[in-house]
Amino acid sequence: MSIKIRGKRRTQSYQSVKRELDNFKEQLENRQLSSVGTRTFELPHMLSISKPWPIGLGATHRELPEYPYPSLYQNAEQSNQLEREAELATAKENNWFDASRVNGAVVHGNILSEDVTNNTHWVLRGTQEERDTRAQEDDFGVNDTDPGDDGTDIFEAVPEYVAKHLWAFILNPTILLNFADLLNIVVQNFTDNDPDSFKLEIIDPILTLFPQRKAINIEELNFFPDNQQRYPKQAYDSDIFDDDLMGWLQLSPASPYSRLKPYTQHLSNFPVTNTHFRSTPAFANDDLDTAMNEGRVFIVNYGEFHDEFVNSRPTEAYGARLHASIGLFAVPKSGGALKTIAIQSTQDQPADFGEWFWWKFLNIQNPARPLSQILTPNNDYWSWQMAKSTLTTAHSMASVVDHLSTHIYLGPIPIAFYRTIPKQHPLTALLETHFMSLIMNNHIGVFSDVQFPLQDGEYGNGYDGLLTGAIERLSGFTSEAFVESTLRRASEYHFITDSTPVERNQHSEFDAISDFPIHDDNGMYPIIHDWVESYLSLYYANDSDVAEDIELQNFCQETVNEAGVNGFPSQILLFDTLVDTVTRLIYWMSVNHALDRFPSFIKLGSLGYYSDRTPRNDEVKSQQDWLNVCPPLNAGMGLFVFSRIFVDLPNKWHRSLGKYPKGQFMHDPDVYQHLSRFQTRLKNLNTGIEEKNRQRRWGYELMMPSSITVSPWN
Fold first, then answer.
1. pLDDT by residue (tens digit) across 599-624?
2. Is the separation of the CB atoms in 644 and 111 below 8 Å?
3. Which residues have a Cβ under 8 Å from the Cβ of 567 and sit 6 or more positions away?
4. Backbone φ/ψ region at 658: left (φ over 0), alpha (ψ -120 to 50), beta
5. From CA 654, how far away is CA 273, in angstroms rounded?
6. Tens digit of pLDDT for each residue in 2-24?
7. Is 561 helix (H, G, I), strand (E, B) or coil?
8. What are phi and psi of 330, to 5 degrees?
9. Do the beta carbons of residue 377 and residue 340 sit within 8 Å?
10. DSSP track, 394-437
């Protein structure tokens, strides 16, 4: 992920710029909407910029010499050993662990080290002539160095939306005053004490200039441009109110981590009954306890986020909140789709009449125990849709936390790698592409103030990065609560447990579910394992080679003792263990880091429910009431634009799992036969999922290799 802002400043004194801005704002404040069309406003002079300031995202590419032929330290000549030792001595001076920046996170202490900057880009190896004659990496028909895909214009969707909804802007009485506020941000950048940098939240222009009102129809919440190839909508775009969609989202979640669990015993804080259960037509003649005993009932409970949600009340998020909702789902006796039974928007119901009365009529309640009731499809239609929105917004935010927490969990691993594994080691050519951009992205997204250019590699306070600084304006999370939630989630990961795919034939608790895409589509682990085993067999002859590889052992020890990666082996003595560990490393850096574009789907996937008032089970609501708990237009477009940073791939197979830069392995032609088999198997798996999706009501792409990035570069 790289952010580009280009332009040329004009020098002007602070007093003159401020005077122009004040005059401009005074003009605006003295005029009503009716006069806007007949009067001319002179823009402040300091906005006469000689070049535009386009903003784009995407990783660039560069060229470096090809790797040396791989060898193990114990098998190398003495001169080569000395060369490796010198390289790693320098690496240790330039790369170090820093656990002091944010409590609970280990970060790179010098992100401008050569190892980091060299692996922030898509790195082609060798010269063009060498690659043309010797490189055999398959590009899957997608040019990963295409300049058109190198920096994606994240604002591309804005003008098309404005054109479609022009009257929403023309009739917005505050748009010119909002424009003056945006000018103020620009003024501060032109007149600050740092003339070489430009600080700007990417979403500032949108949040400031877009109408801050709620949508008045569903189409106003559609921020996707019409270019379906570039901006594909969700497969269920036209079915957002279909109850079966709630069940489908639990089986095909927006992150690789399904929260669907068997419902085996009743919960005191979620008193669902047979009456609730039978409210869904498919269960009118069914029995809840019987269905539970038969393994047909399932639950999704966002209680893990309760404390973080209730302690988070952002003041600049236009009223966004998050609720730790609970959803109950079941499969009918005859089988079929997972059905939605009931939703409770929070973790607690009123405990007595007094609590119910104050909550019901005045929405007064203990902020630490927000109250709600169980709703079913049998309740008022729009109240039910609002209850579903509490569940989908929690689902969306949980997925974003999952995604960023993998960045935090994995972030220290490349530090240990750069410090202990030299260029001549066989792991370097195999793994560097899978580490691409991770450290720099973590810095920009979490720990760096948003400014251009990057200033001296300094770390901020952890709450003002590209992501953490924007989240409290686009969601129901404050920056502090979001970071706290992300760090908690990262601390729960285990390297082995959480990189072991669910084998359905070993999990009978899900037998009632016929199609579970997050698990059923995930065929990548054995393919990665075969590739890793074939590759490493070229350089390790037996277990002794592994046990005697001191560089490998040092990597393991630093990953455990310095990086603190939970579950990572502290030593590797067997070849099979090495294959397993490297397989899991690649799996973590690709599959476990995946994120669906659900947060861009503002109709359901926004990162906030825009009301403190949860749905009641005895009220009659309207479509406008449902629209009112969706984001206002400026926050909706802001989130859509911002989410593209993390979910947008210019094309399928663009720097995806299975892809390596041209020339990556041309230092050893023996690798290519194994690489070819690896890439072919991934393409076949992808084709098989495409065929499955044609048979499904709604397709699911998260577990398609073509949609999974080769590293956490986004």
1. 999 999 999 999 999 999 999 999 99
2. no
3. 493, 494, 495, 496, 497, 498
4. left
5. 49
6. 333 333 333 344 455 445 445 54
7. helix
8. -155, 155
9. yes
10. HHHHHHHHHHHHHHHHHTHHHHHHHHH--TTSHHHHHHHHHHTT
Round to whole Å and give the CA distance between 651 and 231.
10
pLDDT digits 0-9 by tens, 20-63: 445 544 554 454 333 333 333 333 333 332 323 333 344 588 99
Quickly tell me which residue has 């902020």 as its tokens: 367
Residue percentage of the chain with pLDDT more than 90: 70
Question: Looking up tokens 């990086």, which residue turns up?
Answer: 563
The pLDDT score that the predictor gives to residue 133 is 97
Long-range contacts of 543-548 (CB under 8 A, 24+ apart): 543/573, 543/574, 543/575, 545/72, 545/74, 545/75, 545/575, 546/572, 546/573, 546/574, 546/575, 546/577, 546/578, 547/572, 547/573, 547/574, 548/72, 548/74
Query: Are the C-beta atoms of residues 234 and 598 closer than 8 Å to each other?
Result: yes
Cα–Cα distance list, 566 to 141, 513, 559 (Å): 38, 32, 9
- Secondary-structure percent of the chain, ordered helix, strand, coil, rounded to 5: 45, 10, 45
**Predicted local confidence at residue 52, as pLDDT:** 30
d(CA 533, CA 546): 13
The one-letter code for the residue type at 557 is Q
Nearest to 156 by CA among 632, 635, 641, 714: 641
Cα separation of 364 and 420, whole Å? 58
149 pLDDT band, cuts 50/70/90, is low
User: Which of the 8 DSSP states describes residue 274?
Assistant: H
- Residue 329 reports pLDDT greater than 60: yes
- Domain boundaries defined on the chain: 3-53+173-210, 237-398
Full DSSP string of 106-144: -EES-TTSHHHHHTSSEEEES-HHHHHHH-----TT--T
Q: How far apart are CA 394 and CA 681, in angstroms?
A: 36
Q: Which residue has the tokens 């034939």?
A: 505
List C-alpha distances in Å: 660 to 527, 654, 656, 663, 664.
16, 10, 9, 8, 6
Mean pLDDT, all residues of the chain = 87
Q: Which helix (H) or strand (E) holds 342?
A: strand 339-344
β partners of residue 199:
451
Rounded to whole angstroms, the Cα distance separating 144 from 660 reads 9
DSSP symbol at 657: T
Answer yes or no: is pLDDT of 154 > 80: no
237-398 has which CATH code? 3.10.450.60
pTM over 0.85: yes
Structure tokens, 155? 């604002």
pLDDT computed for residue 1 by the predictor = 43
Is 447 within 8 Å of 102 (Cβ atoms)? yes
- Please give the Cα distance from 614 to 630 (Å, whole number): 13
101-128 in b/e form (b: 16+ CB < 10 A) is: bbeebbbbbbbebebbeebbbbbbbbee
521 has a pLDDT exceeding 50: yes
384, HSE (Cβ side, Cα atoms, 13 Å): 18
Angle in degrees, 0-180, between the axes of helices 479-492 and 381-410, rounded to the nearest 10: 70
> What SS3 state is found at 348?
strand
Q: How many CB atoms lie within 10 A of CB 649?
A: 20
Q: What is the pLDDT of residues 155-206, one digit of tens each?
A: 778 888 888 888 887 777 666 566 555 555 555 554 455 544 444 566 777 8
379 contacts: CB under 8 Å, gap ≥ 6: 387, 617
625 C-beta neighbours (distance < 10 Å), count = 17
With vertex at residue 712, the alpha carbon angle to CA 479 and CA 200, rounded to the nearest 5 degrees, is 45
